[in-house]
Amino acid sequence: MGSSQGSTISTNVIGIVDGSSAQKKVPYIDSLPVYVKELIAGGAAGGFAKTAVAPLERTKILLQTRTEGFQSLGLLKSLHKLYRHEGFFGLYKGNGASVLRIVPYAALHFMTYEQYRCWILNNYPVVGTGPIVDLLAGSAAGGTAVLCTYPLDLARTKLAYQVKDSAVSVKAGVTSISVNPAYIGIRDVLTSVFREGGIRGLYRGVGPTLTGILPYAGLKFYIYEELKIHVPEEHQKSIVMRLTCGALAGLFGQTFTYPLDVVRRQMQVESLQPAFEGQAKYKNSWDGLTTIIHNQGWRQLFAGLSINYIKANLPDSIYFWFLVLFSGYCNNISA
């Protein structure tokens, strides 16, 4: 990112005043509007962080949705099973959809957060400039990003849910391996879902998503800012401090809203489950929570949570760290 070859464009500036023919390199990124820089920072941070933990994300989805053959497996056994039946790239199945979704999501979240924060400060000064503003701005930014990118999240979940069945049947001397209903790719998922259920189909599960993302996004930014207040001033710019604050902020937010994430995942893949094909499994978020507790046990609401701790804290730490580095890089260029 610091290379002049990738981040700047050499522009010839003729010295009119002194008549010299000296050339001045003008950083390309310095000429971009602030909101574009915010989009680049948020998008790059989100995409990089998501890719780093893609195998863990897929395993978590399989546990949340009680995929056949994975209900009783732990993290390592699930990863080993995926690798054995689908190879190395099977661990990253759906990662393309994940990155395609998380880049605009993270970019919109970061950009709208700054915009909402400025709007609140300008129009409601009575709120003050403390963590409350971060809570409100973070919640609004999270909701906006979800609504704009939800169909891609739906596609990502459906693609990740598809696993080659490990059950091998031998009949009349013929060996066969059954495969769950498959989508070819992102476009196939979106067109098929839209054809079957229209816009409502593309936003199946958005209820628990919004219910969870609003407090999660708000708490994440709120706790992050609150933790920084209690850090000695001499350590405010420490990378370790920012990584730690980001990790703790993600930990609290993810734990509080995790049951809603399980409901969301199960609602997203219910059309791929034969027992519920063509009909809604859960009417709403509350029905999903109560039904899962009654039929699957309360522990299912936290299935994969330990994986989520590993998966969530690292991306959140990288996310905040990357934003700080990029912001500092832009400031140094503009100086």
UniProtKB/TrEMBL annotation:
Protein keywords: Membrane, Repeat, Transmembrane, Transport
Keyword Repeat applies: yes
Any one cellular-component term (Gene Ontology): membrane
InterPro entries (alphabetical): MCP (IPR002067), MCP_dom_sf (IPR023395), MCP_transmembrane (IPR018108)
Keyword Transmembrane: yes
Highest taxon of the lineage: Eukaryota
Any single Pfam family the record assigns to this protein: Mito_carr
Gene3D superfamilies reported in the protein's UniProt record: Mitochondrial carrier domain
Bilayer topology: Multi-pass membrane protein
Solcar repeat extents: 33-119, 129-230, 237-329
Localization annotation: Membrane
Family: Belongs to the mitochondrial carrier (TC 2.A.29) family.
Example GO BP: transmembrane transport
Name recorded for this polypeptide: Uncharacterized protein
